[in-house]
Amino acid sequence: MPLAESTCKSTKANIFSISGPSGSGKSTLLAIIGLLDSPSEGEYTLKGSSVANLDVADRAMIRNREIGFIFQSFNLIGDLNVYENVELPLTYRGMSATERRTRVQQALERVGMSHRTKHYPSQLSGGQQQRVAVARALAGTPALLLADEPTGNLDSRNAESVMELLRELHREGATICMVTHDPRFARHADRTIHLFDGRVVEETVEVA
Fold first, then answer.
1. Contact criterion met (CB below 8 Å) for 170 and 15
2. Which of the chain's termini has less CB crowding within 10 Å, N or C?
3. At 146, is the secondary structure helix, strand, or coil?
4. Other CB atoms closer than 10 Å to residue 55's CB: what's the count?
């Protein structure tokens, strides 16, 4: 599936908005950027290096240390409570229990969920689950955050709250690649990319 090599390419932290009709390749593009999938053609470079020859272990390590994910469906693990869901990715880094605890607590405080640490996903509203998903990404301090319709299942109040958290993460130096159909949030992007049938058909760069 041909996708423009320049997509989400930048020398500084930016917010990228990706839009397009259903089936245009938005989620596939995020999967490629997040090293969950590989392009059928073209070249993808991450931090100046091609990812083509990375093995499964290397891809997993980069995802864990450099890339954060926020999914429309939250992707929380039902058998784990809020604290454990946020902590889980950090355990794969070999991080000490003390550092994990500090990061999890700080992330949950930032999203206003520190009072729900023992609750399970089934006990939370959609807005609360998305906040936990954001906290999970924040705890890893990713250089690149990929968000697939992060406000799609939320009411306007919770959606704006989640977007403000993403803007805050961007101000701290992270690049955000976000799939969204909501023009209220797309307007915050430094660069807007429109896909159709797997190709970039329109691109707008916000002039500072």
1. yes
2. C
3. strand
4. 8
pLDDT tens profile 79-136: 999 999 999 999 988 899 999 999 999 999 988 899 999 999 999 998 899 889 989 9
**Taking the alpha carbons of 30, 164, 88, 154 in that order, is the dihedral positive or negative?**
negative
Going from the C-alpha of 26 to that of each of 30, 71, 95, 148, the distances in angstroms are 6, 13, 33, 8
Query: What pLDDT is stored for residue 12 in this prediction?
Result: 58
C-alpha distance from residue 39 to each of 7, 30, 34 (Å): 13, 11, 12
Ranges of residues in the chain whose predicted pLDDT is under 70: 1-13, 207-208
Whole-angstrom distance, CA of residue 76 vs CA of residue 58: 24
Counting Cβ atoms within 10 Å, is residue 86 exposed (0-12), middle (13-18) or buried (19+)? Answer: buried
Task: Give CA 150 to chain center in angstroms.
Answer: 8
- Name the phi and psi angles at 69, rounded to 5: -125, 135
Report the DSSP beta bridge partners of residue 175.
144
Helices (H) and strands (E) in the chain, counts: 7, 8
Q: Are 180 and 186 in contact (CB under 8 A)?
A: yes
